[in-house]
Amino acid sequence: MNEVAAKRPGDSRFEKRFLFSSDPALRERFINFFGDLRFGILLEEMDSAAGVVAYDHTDGFDKDLTIVTAACDRIELLCPLQSDRDLRILGQVNYVGRSSMEVGLQMESKTQRGWEAVANAFFIMVARREEGAFPVPPLRVEGEQEMRSWDEGRVRQGERRSQAKSHYLNKPPSAEESALLHSLLRETEQQSQKGVLMKDTHRQATILMHPQNRNIHNKVFGGYIMRLSFETAWSIAHIFSRRRPLFLAVDQFDFLKPVEIGSIVSFDGMVTFTGKTSYIIEVKAEVINPRNGTREITNISYFTFVAADAAGQPRPVPAVLPRSYDEGLKFIDGRRRYHMVKAKRETASDTTPDETSDTPEEGA
User: Fold this and answer.
1) Which element (helix H / strand E) includes 317?
2) Structure confidence by residue, pLDDT tens digits, 35-84
3) Chain segment 192-223, per-residue pLDDT in tens
4) Distance CA 304, CA 290 (A)
5) Is residue 276 a part of any domain in this protein?
6) I need a labelling partner for 10 at 20 to 30 A (CA). Which of 130, 151, 320, 357 fits?
7) Which helix (H) or strand (E) holds 325?
């Protein structure tokens, strides 16, 4: 078998611009009723960009490959998006495995000082042909920046595996977590702790998948699922906080299986953990079989929001309270994610943590 020729990261470099400052019709399509950019639509654009990069790196069209989105790592919003400023998405391959690629994306906003980063994202793309994994070209990295991107991609790969093992379905609560869960459930039963019951934050949207949202493989476009999941989470955030929700990050977005055109998909979400002003929302997308009522999970995602006042300043949110063991496991999972992200932020800032701070967004 012939070896696959190595490629440079720059060989797959991609750029797309959105001229919001000069195109009112385009801006109108992307804004919500607050006048903010609809991040759900931008998630669609990111997934599309990641696909273009992956097909370019693998010469996927020439080789008749199927490139699928396996996951989206954390997407972090670095600063608020301005709807009257031009935006661009830049992307390239950072790291490769045997049949997988990490596509790094950066969203930038045009300011008077030039282009400034407003969000970073990492998509995991997998190459397949005839239902089997297909080897992708190795990456030839040169220079300090490319080596750094490669090393960071390798670290993220290890973190993804570790996070999968620590998911509440795979890793039971520790002794400390079990004690916390027991205390929470007892207090909730006795109504001795003020807050909002987790089940009362649950919301559901059921949507038919139409052919207008298909990809080149005649499946539902993954970016469309991301958009609907985000909009479900945003609605939950707005109702829960009773304030304008400010999006902070996508902690994880897993694509477990493709969604067929014509499927009936339910998007179920709820608040699973709260800090002082921030909160995590889990959204599951499930295909419902209308003939027998069975449900099959296709996507799981986690979003972090901040409750803000009219001036955009963070405001406290009520505590979310589990009332069953299953809800308790979700609470523990949200707590793990919350503290993992908080630790990463504190490490990145290289400062002494503020012991009075309970929110991952403070000090960002």
Assistant:
1) none
2) 889 999 999 999 999 999 999 999 999 999 999 999 998 898 998 899 99
3) 567 899 999 999 999 999 999 888 888 999 99
4) 32
5) yes
6) 130
7) helix 325-349
- Please tell me whether residues 118 and 200 are part of one structural domain: no
Residue range of the domain that includes 182: 167-349
**Do 266 and 128 sit in the same domain of this protein?**
no
SS3 361: coil
> Under DSSP, is residue 239 helix (H, G, I), strand (E, B) or coil?
helix
CA–CA separation, 17 and 249 (whole Å): 22
Encoded tokens for 286: 């499930």
150 sits in which H/E element: helix 143-166
Q: Are 157 and 244 in the same domain?
A: no
Say yes or no: 157 and 187 in one domain: no
- Do 158 and 195 fall into the same domain? no
DSSP three-state, residue 355: coil
Write down the pTM of the prediction.
Answer: 0.87
Domain count for the chain, please give it. 2
Q: Which CA distances in Å does 206 have to 41, 261, 274, 284, 291? A: 19, 14, 26, 12, 16
